[in-house]
Design brief:
It comes from Piliocolobus tephrosceles (Ugandan red Colobus). The chain is α+β, with helices and mostly antiparallel strands and 517 residues long. Helix content is 44%, strand content 15%. Helix 2 (20-36) runs parallel beside helix 10 (300-379). Residues 189-207, 384-394, 404-408, 411-415, 482-497, 499-503 and 505-517 have low confidence and may be disordered.
């Protein structure tokens, strides 16, 4: 890792985070990330420390420390603070209203933020987001406006012009006595969404630099002492505050650094010059950085207590991280169990379908085998004998006329074309009519016999089907009543089982019907 990048990162951490326990926790989180390489866990841990808008630049400072293969995922998980302002216009007289809720104001020590959007409303349709900070309304800056003043400003015009920038954090304050806290948009549920309690993250600290106004009346002095800092930490610091003095009343404490007095910069002044400036006027406007040099004036006992408190805070942060990791682990285990359960259900369903398919194939194969055996055993012997040709007897083939070359010979009236006399021809005609009548009688007889044999064949098929079904039912009853291999079958005197007549394919026939070979 580049030393320059690491040095700049440490400077930014020291500038943005005052609590030493939070600094140690931040470094511990980064060390654990380089062991596990889990970006999601890293971002979740960082949100416990980067818990206010002023610390959001730390996400950008940490990004160079992330390997290139994880930087895209890191950018997706961390909130992106927009630098440019976005301006939208809303119609205040719209039937559904503006479609947004806001919270914050000067009295709460923060800006005005969008905390809720109505889905499909005006604000949602123009692209506003939960976590946007409202910077200007109708051209006026609202950084020094209370909540009520902002609401009144919105009501002054029919068309409201709003300029916002996305922060990704929302201020949370359950009661006036509680300190202001911040929640990320993905962790926040608005009032209309059912509400959710605070996450217990550390509260927002006061601004690092603040101004106090002191007016010296009569002979009363400031009631504080100042001293110069060491070489490694130059500046003018308050070394002692007298209880009940003006300095104590305005909130000055031991360790506060004096930055400016009545417009005079104290960063490059020595102790004597600083004292002269403080005594030069009866009205003082003092800019200080609270607690910037507190460790310079601490006793050994205070340092020990500070170190103990710092370690307790560090352990508390680590405990929160451990609980978050355990919750994440339990959630992953539940998801894995659900995935395995669905996989087993799908596998069992596939096995059941395969078993059913094989059973159906086996049943079809057995039916084909039974049908084939039955045809081999019974089909050739019960084949119906049909008449060869009935049409040939009823309609004989007409005789072909002989072909003559030249002139056809003339026949006498008494001559017959087939030979013989006329009487013989008449006799032949009678015989032919009689033969035709006999053939019709034979045809009717053969037709009746055919219908009878077909009916008999159909009855035989129905009887065989009934016998087959009877055998299947009998076998099913035997399987349900007696275990396999324990059927109580009577034996004959010779010790053998009685033989029953068998039909096609091993079907046992009743006693009244035996197979005749």
């Amino acid at each position: 890792m580049d030393r320059k990048v690491a040095r700049e990162f440490r400077h930014k951490v020291d500038f943005l985070i005052e609590n030493d326990a939070e600094k140690d926790y931040l470094y511990d989180v980064l060390r654990m990330y380089h062991q596990t390489m889990d970006v999601a866990v890293l971002v979740g841990d960082l949100k416990l420390v980067i818990n206010e808008p002023s610390r959001l630049p730390l996400f950008d400072a940490i990004r160079p420390l992330i390997p290139l293969k994880h930087q895209v995922e890191y950018d997706q998980l961390t909130p992106r603070r927009s630098r440019k302002l976005k301006e939208v216009r809303l119609d205040r007289l719209h039937p559904e209203g503006l479609g947004l809720s806001v919270r914050g104001g000067l009295e709460f020590g923060c800006g005005l933020f969008i905390s809720h959007l109505i889905k499909g409303g005006q604000a949602d349709s123009v692209g506003l987001q939960v976590g946007d900070e409202i910077v200007r309304i109708n051209g006026y800056s609202i950084s020094c406006c209370t909540h009520e003043e902002v609401i009144n400003l919105i009501r002054t015009k029919k068309t409201v012009s709003i300029k916002v920038r996305h922060i990704g954090l929302i201020p949370v304050k359950s009661s006036p006595d509680e300190p202001l806290k911040w929640q990320y948009v993905d962790q926040f549920v608005s009032e209309s969404g059912g509400g959710r309690g605070s996450l217990g993250s550390p509260g927002n600290r006061e601004n690092k630099e603040k101004k106090v106004f002191i007016s010296l009346v009569g002979s009363r002095g400031l009631g504080c002492s100042i001293s110069s800092g060491p070489i490694q930490k130059p500046g003018i610091f308050i070394s002692h505050v007298k209880p009940g003095s003006l300095s104590a009343e305005v909130g000055l404490e031991t360790g506060d650094q004096i930055v400016e007095v009545n417009g005079i910069d104290f960063s490059n002044l020595d102790h004597k010059e600083a004292v002269n400036v403080l005594k030069s006027s009866r009205s003082l406007t003092i800019s200080i950085v609270a607690g910037a040099g507190r460790e310079l004036f601490m006793t050994d006992r205070e340092r020990l207590a500070e170190a103990r408190q710092r370690e307790l805070q560090r352990q508390e942060l680590l405990m929160q991280k451990r609980l978050a990791m355990e919750s994440n682990k339990i959630l992953l285990e539940q998801q894995e169990m659900e995935r395995q359960r669905r996989k087993e259900i799908a596998q069992k369903a596939a096995e059941e379908n395969e078993r059913y398919r094989k059973e159906m194939e086996q049943i079809v194969e057995e039916e084909e085998k039974f049908k084939k055996q039955w045809e081999e055993d019974w089909g050739s012997k019960e084949q119906l004998l049909l008449p060869k040709t009935i049409t040939a007897e009823v309609h004989p083939v007409p005789l072909r006329k002989p072909k003559y070359q030249g002139v056809e010979p003339e026949l006498e009236p008494t001559d017959d074309p087939d030979g013989g006399t006329e009487e013989q021809g008449e006799q032949k005609g009678k015989d032919k009519k009689k033969a035709k009548y006999d053939s019709l009688q034979d045809l009717r007889k053969n037709k009746k016999e055919l219908e009878f044999e077909q009916k008999l064949y159909k009855e035989k098929e129905e009887m065989l089907e009934k016998e087959k079904q009877l055998k299947i039912n009998r076998l099913a009853q035997e399987v349900r009543v007696l275990p396999a291999g324990q059927a109580n079958i009577p034996r004959t005197q010779c010790g053998r089982f009685p033989c029953a007549p068998r039909g096609p394919a091993g079907v046992v026939l009743p006693k009244w019907r035996t197979r005749v070979e």
